[in-house]
Amino acid sequence: MYNKLTVEDVEVKGKKVLVRCDFNVPLDSDGNITDENRIVGALPTIKYLMDNGAKVILCSHMGKPKGEPKPELSLKPVAKSLSEKLGKEVVFAADDNVVGDNAKATVAAMNDGDVVLLENTRYRKEETKNEESFSKELASLADLFVNDAFGTAHRAHCSNVGVSSIIKPAVAGYLIEKEINFLGNAVNSPVRPLVAILGGSKVSSKISVIENLLKKVDKLIIGGGMAYTFFAAQGKTTGTSLLEPDFIDYAKKMLQEAGDKIVLPVDTVITEKFDNDAPSKVVEGNIPDGCMGLDIGPKSIALFKDVLKDAKTVVWNGPMGVFEMSNFAKGTNEIASMLADLDATTIIGGGDSVAAVNQAGLGDKMSHISTGGGASMEFLEGKELPGIAALTDK
Ligand code: ADP
Ligand code: MG
Question: What is the distance between the alpha carbons of residues 125 and 104, in angstroms, rounded to a whole number?
């Protein structure tokens, strides 16, 4: 992985190893975990460390407790889930101070191969400000630091960046390594043709992604709500569709610079009301007054599939329509099933896009589903992620 040390580059036997995971999982009102993907994603690194005789001290944030203990955001349910998946008890170090007396005593009692989970790091107000005091406390528990929290890599907090500057070496875990390899190769040394598909609601939130990807891709497909600002740039009417008037000039500029690299929808599923049961129809070109586009039409699906059929690498960020409503999910689902069958490296980034692919039951047919929405976006923007930059160079 680039030039960063990974967990396999260092001796871990008998060492106390602090591992920053991304256990920021969704809970229902009874405190049950509703999606365990991130826990599953963390297992390879934890297993490797256990099997190689480390004392494994896990930490993570969950939700936004805003710097104080919030029992409903305790990581305790994660310890239970991890224990089941690892077939070994993961001891939960309940501690409102995260690194208080109980956490210290629990760590002191560890044997090689044991696993302890600390409490939610965001119980401490220093965490999100990357204040040295809490970084030092975390670092005092361990001899070695492993960062495996890709979902937080775009943030500079105590538990990823702060500790990396105190505990040396600070190395990457398998999940971070995998994320960086897939996303990095796709963007920086792709097997071509490389096609990116961008969608979702806003052009404004993805400007840097558009600009960075345009430099790298062979084709850029644009669908979803952000397409209508490009329609407007082409002089088409957009009715009541999502539109960002302040970005029409920007879209014009992109279209001029990119030439036929940008592929836009040629037809649209429109309706008068933002409602799954509202009557809908397909129009080509202009969207009439009083109507909004909520999905790409059949000719666009065919056009996009034609662009995708020869691709060897595909990066997808942002759904093609309002996939949350079944009657407007077709464009997103059709593109997802095309990618599932494609003989290419397929990479899905972005929270809603990942949800859409999983909703279609096609998650395991993709080469890589990123566990980090925001982090994968910043990666596609070409930014350096602080959580990764802080790791020790090879
Ligand atoms: P991601 O999380 O994958 O990066 P975004 O957050 O940018 O994606 O966008 C996802 C949202 O965009 C979804 O909630 C979806 O309903 C919405 N969306 C997609 N197409 C349209 C459209 N035509 N009109 C309104 N909203 C849309
Ligand atoms: Mg989103």
Answer: 19
